[in-house]
Write the structure tokens for this entry.
Amino acid sequence: MEVLAPAYLEIWNHPDNLRFLSLTGRAFEDEQLRQWCGAHLQAGVKYSGAFSPERRLTAILLTRQNPTEGFELLSVGEYDVQL
């Protein structure tokens, strides 16, 4: 998650997204993100990133797997940032 956190903050705080994601219009902070992601991880959500050979983050994938209920794709998004 450490590698993906800056990308998530940039995506969520982008003006095109923030108007839909924040009821107050205020930017999300790093601590908020870490609390949410921590809760997701405890609930069994797995965060994955795809990287180019140049170490650019190109996609973020969220999944949850349950032996009884199966595999659930929660989110997939294309992204491009140098790490």
Notes: The mean pLDDT is 86. The chain has one domain: 5-82. The first strand starts at residue 45 and ends at 51.
